[in-house]
């Protein structure tokens, strides 16, 4: 409960207009205390003859980020956000919502119940509940379609997308837009102007034609969801709710929505998505304590290949000035062409307008001389993955960059400690491991070498936020967090393939588990040559007794690198099409088995998933044990955002807790009877099982 010094509602009066400020910083989430106090304030206002109208606003720059997600795991306490919304809607005195900062979820639902809405142009309005496996439970599925029409409301609710104040005005979601300084005055004027007309019931935005269009749009979405291997219960239920909004009176629709919301709150998908949300928040906090980030405005990118170009675009999009460096004029032009073509595709698809592209490109410059980096605050090296090449680049950077500039490498596996030790300022060297395409993929592994300064780590986390990336701190080892774990569970898939499961069955089993693509389909997409290079690199350090499956090498030797060569594990007769099974690949696998004397055995899909997950979780536990990842939530965040792990399962560590760590350990122990080296259970996993603990409890220790 709030102390008397920290009321959740700040009430002031301005000439008969009562201003009620939501006051639960920083985001004014609608926790129980806030709902209770707001409900009471509205009841009092109804009876107070000095109050003629009410303005609802948010203190501290935000209206509200919606319900307090942490409360969903606890017993529900009235009043609900929906009850408060009903009171607002039924108020005989006009209520105007003044929106700035975020107005999301339950926050926007309160505003939807008001008699008018005024917002700032930059406000972010939306119903993002679906991203948490929920649906708007405070009347949003009923009031938004009534206000702006079902066809416009449907994508906003189904995708959980937010819109700016300007866009909301165009949709009819806001009645007016103004700047922050005048927001409250404008809302007060509006509340007075509404006078006694406020309580008059509002007509639906849709006529009969709109209603039919809405029903048709719902039918299309139902078909789309039915065709997906996995959709959230919330996605199906919210369509039912919007349909109810078109077919039933408000009161019945609200009842329907409340039941659907309760179903979503109880779903494992909600628990998984809420876990992923909080895991990201935890992972995103800089481990460098109070260290203050260095200022970054000018960035350099060395190397204009696919990765470097993507990094440059990400930085330009975030408002940074970028200098691109390449070794010669032709390579530089190729790099610039790549950047231009990324933007061209965005303009062609309508995601970006030509003026915004021009603005971003105006901050890009290019050079073949490293001296152009002399004023850079941060440089990211994205050249060929070779220690000697990288060492040369860092020697150049050491020579030309100003003192205090941050020197980052985008290597995926090289020893960053060695790179740092090779120059005169190891404290400024850090790993920024982007994922391809770097302007799209969310994950950013921030790899911290031994000598790095705290403020360099803090700057990297601040930069990630600016680039809208999801950062995870990683220690230095071959593959850091994600690629190190990936290598092991891919091996488990290879073993199963050699032992009798086809790559197609393995993909299908893991796609049913929730991956958008199974491991072999993914290998075809990324290019078989990439994995081939990794395997060649690791060959020297692979223990001679370790099992090694040669199928992938056999395909690469034939030039079958996947989609880009028209065949890999699958056949791709036409570009962009989903691959077809290839009998010749099955013959290659059969030949390998014959050579090794392996008799194929049948696999059930369930066993495929269990082995894959046991390998993944076991290596993840070793990554924790070695201090490469700080906490299980960081691994969940990395695997969900960079490796396609189904988000609605929360992440592999959450999955392991859900299945039960003793069950995972028992699987490992039984598989270890076949191959004691590969399946050796991690010490951490054994300890957690002994202590009856979980990865979730480990998270709480941080
Ligand atoms: C809902 O409304 C259901 C209703 O329909 C029905 C009701 C019946 N709850 O992200 P940040 C925490 S469902 C609890 O770093 P930003 C966050 O964990 C809700 N906590 O700030 C962090 O805590 P900590 C629908 C929340 O400026 C701190 O606040 N709403 C919530 O980068 C700062 O967060 C949503 O889904 C919450 N709702 O981004 C919005 N929101 O410091 C979810 C945040 O301890 N929130 N926290 O780590 C967001 O998307 C972003 O937080 C937001 C601000 C964009 C708002």
Automatic annotation (TrEMBL):
Residues 299-474 form the 3-hydroxyacyl-CoA dehydrogenase NAD binding domain. It comes from the Bacteria. CDD domains: crotonase-like (cd06558). PROSITE patterns: ENOYL_COA_HYDRATASE (PS00166). Its main location: other. Keywords: Fatty acid metabolism, Isomerase, Lipid degradation, Lipid metabolism, Lyase, Multifunctional enzyme, NAD, Oxidoreductase, Peroxisome. It is found in: Peroxisome. One of its GO terms (molecular function) is (3S)-3-hydroxyacyl-CoA dehydrogenase (NAD+) activity. Residues 479-572, 608-693 form the 3-hydroxyacyl-CoA dehydrogenase C-terminal domain. It catalyses: a (3S)-3-hydroxyacyl-CoA + NAD(+) = a 3-oxoacyl-CoA + NADH + H(+). Pathway: Lipid metabolism; fatty acid beta-oxidation. GO terms for biological process: fatty acid beta-oxidation. InterPro entries: 3-OHacyl-CoA_DH_NAD-bd (IPR006176), 3HC_DH_C (IPR006108), 6-PGluconate_DH-like_C_sf (IPR008927), ClpP/crotonase-like_dom_sf (IPR029045), Enoyl-CoA_hyd/isom_CS (IPR018376), Enoyl-CoA_hydra/iso (IPR001753), NAD(P)-bd_dom_sf (IPR036291). Pfam families: 3HCDH (PF00725), 3HCDH_N (PF02737), ECH_1 (PF00378). Belongs to the enoyl-CoA hydratase/isomerase family. In the N-terminal section; belongs to the enoyl-CoA hydratase/isomerase family. This is Fatty acid oxidation complex subunit alpha.
């Amino acid at each position: 409960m709030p102390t008397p010094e920290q009321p959740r509602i700040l009430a002031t009066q301005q000439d008969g207009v009562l201003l009620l400020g939501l006051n639960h910083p920083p985001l004014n989430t609608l926790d129980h205390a806030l709902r209770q106090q707001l409900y009471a304030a509205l009841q009092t206002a109804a009876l107070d003859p000095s109050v003629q109208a009410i303005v609802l606003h948010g203190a501290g720059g935000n209206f509200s980020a919606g319900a307090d997600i942490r409360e969903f795991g606890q017993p529900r306490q009235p009043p609900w956000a929906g009850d408060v919304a009903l009171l607002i809607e039924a108020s005989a005195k006009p209520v105007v919502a003044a929106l700035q900062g975020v107005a999301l979820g339950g926050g926007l639902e309160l505003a939807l119940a008001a008699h008018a809405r005024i917002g700032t142009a930059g406000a972010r309005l939306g119903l993002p509940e679906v991203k948490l496996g929920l649906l708007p439970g405070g009347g949003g599925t009923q009031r938004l379609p009534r206000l702006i029409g079902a066809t416009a409301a449907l994508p906003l609710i189904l995708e959980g997308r937010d819109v700016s104040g300007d866009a909301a005005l165009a949709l009819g979601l806001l009645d007016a837009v103004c700047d922050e300084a005048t927001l409250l005055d404008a809302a007060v004027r509006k509340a007075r102007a509404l006078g006694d007309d406020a309580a008059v019931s509002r007509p639906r935005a849709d006529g009969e034609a709109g209603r039919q269009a809405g029903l048709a749009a719902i039918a299309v979405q139902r078909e789309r969801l039915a065709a997906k291997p996995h959709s959230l219960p919330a996605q199906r239920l919210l369509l039912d709710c919007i349909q109810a909004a078109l077919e039933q009176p408000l009161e019945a629709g609200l009842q329907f929505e409340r039941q659907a919301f309760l179903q979503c709150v109880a779903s494992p998908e909600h628990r998984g998505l809420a876990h992923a949300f909080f895991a990201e928040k935890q992972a995103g906090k800089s481990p460098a304590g109070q260290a203050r980030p260095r200022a970054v405005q000018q960035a350099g990118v060395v190397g204009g290949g696919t990765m470097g170009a993507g990094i440059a675009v990400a930085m330009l999009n975030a408002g940074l000035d970028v200098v691109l460096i390449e070794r010669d004029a032709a390579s530089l032009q190729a790099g610039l062409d790549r950047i231009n073509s990324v933007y061209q595709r965005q303009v062609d698809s309508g995601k970006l307008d030509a003026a915004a592209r021009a603005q971003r490109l105006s901050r890009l410059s290019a050079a073949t001389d490293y001296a152009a980096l002399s004023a850079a605050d941060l440089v990211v090296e994205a050249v060929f993955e070779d220690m000697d090449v990288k060492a040369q680049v860092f020697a150049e950077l050491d020579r030309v960059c100003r003192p205090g500039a941050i020197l980052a490498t985008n290597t995926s596996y090289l020893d960053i400690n060695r790179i740092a030790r090779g120059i005169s300022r190891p404290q400024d060297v850090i790993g920024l491991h982007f994922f391809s395409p770097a302007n799209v993929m969310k994950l950013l592994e921030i790899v911290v070498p031994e000598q790095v300064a705290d403020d360099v780590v803090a700057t990297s986390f601040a930069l990630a936020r600016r680039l809208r990336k999801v950062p995870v701190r990683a220690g230095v080892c071959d593959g850091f967090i994600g690629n190190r774990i990936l290598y092991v569970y891919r091996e488990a898939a290879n073993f199963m393939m050699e032992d009798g499961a086809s790559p197609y069955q393995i993909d299908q089993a893991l796609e049913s588990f929730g991956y958008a693509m199974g491991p072999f389909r993914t290998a075809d997409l990324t290019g078989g040559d990439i994995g081939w290079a990794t395997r060649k690199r690791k060959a020297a350090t692979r223990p001679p007794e370790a099992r090694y499956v040669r199928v992938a090498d056999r395909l690469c030797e034939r030039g079958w690198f996947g989609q880009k060569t028209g065949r890999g594990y699958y056949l791709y007769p036409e570009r962009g099409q989903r691959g077809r099974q290839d009998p010749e690949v099955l013959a290659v696998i059969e030949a390998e088995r014959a050579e090794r004397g392996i008799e194929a055995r049948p696999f059930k899909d369930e066993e495929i998933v269990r082995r894959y997950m046991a390998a993944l979780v076991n290596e993840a536990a070793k990554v924790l044990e070695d201090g490469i990842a700080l906490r299980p939530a960081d691994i969940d965040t990395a695997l969900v955002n960079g490796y396609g792990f189904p988000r609605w399962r929360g992440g592999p560590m959450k999955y392991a807790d859900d299945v039960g760590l003793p069950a995972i350990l028992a699987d490992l122990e039984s598989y270890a009877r076949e191959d004691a080296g590969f399946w050796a259970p991690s010490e951490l996993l054994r300890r957690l099982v002994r202590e009856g603990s979980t990865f979730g409890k480990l998270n709480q220790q941080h």
